[in-house]
Design brief:
268 residues, alpha/beta, 9 helices, 47% helix
Length: 268
């Protein structure tokens, strides 16, 4: 399935006012299990983080994680980069409208972007599965981190990531260049790129996989059939979300022996 047209449609709907954009970000935080995991790891990182922080959101998309970070501390300097001009412009307009002067969005290719020893934290959420030259990106990010800085990644695993269950199947999201990482593979690639320590764990275990289908896959499939499903979605989520919330909680709180997603932390 081509996911980008649906993303553009959603962007147009929620980009009509700052209020709707904020509501959109809040909905994504509630629905997306990856957001639950990322927020958990950021809260842990903050406990030992330095006072004056510079952050890079590497592949910022809609800007929801940049928004989350900007809400934590208005003094943090945040640069968000993406390859899509439309999203960069939309995000700059929104963050300017709400007075977030510490946040800036720029157009950038992560295979070329490098800013030596500039950032304490780099975020990469659902980005690496879209980039073929992944080691080059890891090298650039490692060079861009300050000593002791951390890279936080969310990406599909090879245990059914991108909803691929067996040989011959293709990714549910056709824009992916790989179906998922083997946990040892991504650890090795990060270490070869210069990171001194890597900690990888599974996400989207059994509860997370069920939640993802209920809260994301089925609605996306419906919207792919017809935009009229926008009318039905609020009623669908009223019924489904309480179950998805409980499933997300279990996936986030309890360790998963395997899963279709990976949460990876790497330190310079």
């Amino acid at each position: 399935m081509h996911y980008d047209p649906i993303k553009r449609t959603l962007g147009k709907v929620f980009n009509q006012s700052p209020f709707l954009r904020r509501m959109f970000y809040n909905l994504l935080d509630l629905l997306l299990l990856r957001a639950w995991h990322i927020h958990k790891e950021i809260k842990l990182w903050i406990k030992t983080a330095p006072v004056n922080i510079s952050v890079l959101d590497a592949g910022s998309g809609y800007g929801q994680y940049t928004y989350y970070l900007s809400q934590i501390n208005p003094n943090w300097k945040i640069l968000a980069v993406d390859v899509k001009q439309e999203q960069v412009e939309d995000c700059n307009n929104f963050f300017s409208a709400i007075g977030k002067s510490n946040v800036k969005f720029e157009l950038a290719d992560l295979t070329k972007f490098r800013n030596d020893e500039a950032y304490n934290l780099v975020l990469s959420v659902d980005v690496m599965e879209h980039i073929l030259e992944d080691v080059l990106v890891f090298q650039n990010i490692c060079a861009s981190l300050k000593p002791g800085g951390m890279l936080l990644i969310s990406t599909p695993s090879d245990q059914g990531g991108s909803d691929v269950q067996g040989e011959g199947e293709t990714s549910f999201i056709e824009e992916h260049v790989r179906d998922g990482y083997n946990i040892k593979e991504i650890e090795a690639k990060l270490k070869s790129a210069g990171f001194s320590r890597v900690d990888a764990r599974y996400s989207y275990g059994t509860p997370g996989k069920i939640s993802w289908r209920l809260s994301m896959k089925y609605p996306i499939l419906m919207l792919g059939i017809s935009k009229l499903f926008f009318i039905i979605l609020p009623f669908y989520y009223l019924l489904v979300y309480p179950f998805a919330f409980i499933l997300n909680y279990f996936d986030t709180v309890f360790p998963q022996k395997t899963g279709t997603g990976l949460i990876v932390k790497a330190w310079k």
